[in-house]
TrEMBL record:
Family to which the UniProt record says this protein belongs: Belongs to the GTP-binding SRP family. SRP54 subfamily.
Organism: Lactiplantibacillus modestisalitolerans
Compartment(s) of residence: Cytoplasm
Protein name per its UniProtKB record: Signal recognition particle protein
The protein's Enzyme Commission number: 3.6.5.4
Catalytic EC class: hydrolase
Region annotated Disordered, chain positions: 463-482
């Protein structure tokens, strides 16, 4: 899992602090030492670490945090905010040309993920803006590079322009641009060659392509696993090409975090997207605040919610919200949700995005057995219509019948119903903005560091979604009355 070591060490440093109640200057110094080491070990750039530690310390001392209430908590907040700032504060959208086509050129070392990311980004634009992209195959050196892009193109149904491997890449790009003009493509992606290391010849070729294509966006694709080296690479490319943004790939692997935390601060160029898997849909907008939460082990609740929202259609989501608010969520809805979750993908990945679940030692060996889900379904399917719609009537004799019908032991039926009721209660409380009942349900470390972090993340999440939700809810209610 990405950031595992860093998260563990940062959490430990801050839990130690929290245990103290009062925080002395020397406690602060000790904590900052631990944070500094944690960052250096995660391969964060030395200068970035130095600045980071200095800023956090100054803020902690300057605001008289140590004399105030909950100093440890305040320091956690400062660390979170400064991590966010280091990574760029807010998400930066893709540049767009006022006149079509918007030209996006890729650059990066061999194997960084350029070709894959071209496909991911083209698919994203297709899905989100009904874009009609053209992809230009300008890597003529790597064997099978063109076929690879063509395969990607077939997969996402986007055309590829290519002239084989015997034509100069600059000429390929020139003709590709012409074709895009003729076909009125609104986006052009240029998939370029990489080398194992930066070299003069490659840089010149890329500079020449840039001159021909006048890209609106030059995206440097960086493999997050390469840590500190990534920063040197980025500087090399940037000096020659003046890149406009960075895409960090392979954040699904066990990167230590160095690249994510250093690139922005060192190059001044925003990270625009992150690649989190090999599938064409595994590309996400980079949100510095969410990444800071993730690094601090607070999970990435917003991305999870967005993933869920994409699966639900609007109307369904409204209905579900209503049911949760009115506490009429029943087993039919439960099965609906299971179906939705199935569509969202790998359950383990999803679980890990939930605050308190990510980096929770108890979850280290977490696996969600598809069999368990099948059992849950079997139990629900053995309920009568009436039972599904009104779970309160599930008395012992009904439960025994369900157990027999589903072939599951009675204790499993009881446990499942209990969990259902707990979840229902929790969702209802959350929808009212009440977190008091939640801590026990999530990880059970209510008073500890983790519990507070969960609360912070949850509160922020609700603040952000509340307004939208209120509007939606009112609309849905009105519609219902009609
Ligand atoms: N796990 C993971 N693998 C990736 C990601 N992005 C790219 N890859 C893989 O990295 C390898 C090199 O990617 P490719 O697009 O060919 O790199 P290029 O040489 O820069 O064009 C391929 O096996 C990709 O599937 C990512 O975000 N996560
Ligand atoms: Mg490639």
């Amino acid at each position: 899992m990405a950031f595992e070591g860093l998260t563990e060490r940062l959490q430990k440093a801050m839990t130690n602090l929290r245990r103290k109640g009062k925080v002395s200057e020397s406690d602060l110094r000790q904590t900052m030492r631990e944070i500094r080491l944690a960052l250096l070990e995660a391969d964060v750039n030395f200068t970035v670490v130095k600045d980071f530690v200095k800023t956090v310390r100054e803020r902690a001392l300057g605001a008289k945090v140590l004399e105030g209430l909950n100093p440890a908590q305040q320091i956690v907040k400062i660390v979170n905010e400064e991590l966010t700032k280091t990574m760029g504060e807010t998400a930066v959208p893709l540049n767009k040309s006022p006149k079509i086509p918007t030209v996006i050129m890729m650059a990066g070392l061999q194997g960084a993920g350029k070709t894959t990311t071209v496909g991911k980004l083209a698919l994203k634009l297709k899905n989100e803006q009904k874009a009609r992209p053209l992809m230009i195959a300008a890597d003529v050196y790597r064997p099978a590079a063109i076929e690879q892009l063509q395969q990607v193109g077939q997969q996402i149904d986007v055309p590829v322009f290519e002239l084989g491997t015997d034509v100069d890449p600059v000429e390929i790009v020139r003709q590709g641009m012409q074709q895009a003009q003729e076909n009125h493509n609104d986006y052009v992606f240029i998939d370029t060659a990489g080398r194992l290391q930066i070299d003069e010849q490659l840089m010149n070729e890329l500079a020449n392509i840039k001159d021909v294509a006048h890209p609106d966006e030059i995206l440097l694709v960086i493999d997050a696993m390469t840590g500190q080296n990534a920063v040197n690479t980025a500087e090399g490319f940037d000096t020659k090409l003046d890149v406009t943004g960075v895409i960090l790939t392979k954040l699904d692997g066990d990167t230590r975090g160095g690249a994510a935390l250093s690139i922005r601060a060192v190059t001044g160029k925003p990270i625009k997207f992150i690649g989190q898997g090999e599938k064409m849909t595994d590309l996400d907008v980079f949100h510095p605040d969410r990444m800071a939460d993730r690094i601090l082990g607070m999970g990435d609740m917003m991305t999870l919610i967005e993933k869920a929202q994409k699966q639900f259609d609007e109307k369904q989501a409204e209905e579900m919200n209503l049911k949760i608010q009115e506490n009429t969520f029943d087993f039919n809805d439960f099965i609906d949700q299971l179906d939705q979750v199935d569509k969202m993908g790998n359950m383990e990945d999803i679980m890990k995005m939930i605050p308190g679940v990510a980096n929770n030692p108890a979850m280290k060996n977490f696996t969600m057995d598809p069999k368990d889900i099948a059992h849950v379904r079997a139990i629900v399917y053995s309920m009568t219509k009436q039972e599904k719609a009104d779970p309160d009537i599930l008395n012992p004799s009904r439960r025994r019948r369900i157990a027999a019908g589903s072939g599951r032991p009675i204790h499993e039926v009881n446990r499942m119903i209990k969990q259902f009721n707990q979840t229902k209660k929790m969702m209802n409380q959350m929808s009212k903005g009440n977190f008091a009942g939640m801590e026990g349900l999530m990880g059970g470390n209510g008073g500890g560091f983790g519990g507070k972090m969960q609360q912070m993340a949850m509160k922020r999440m609700v603040r952000q979604t509340k307004k939208k939700k209120k509007k939606k809810l009112a609309k849905a209610l009105r519609r219902r009355k009609r």
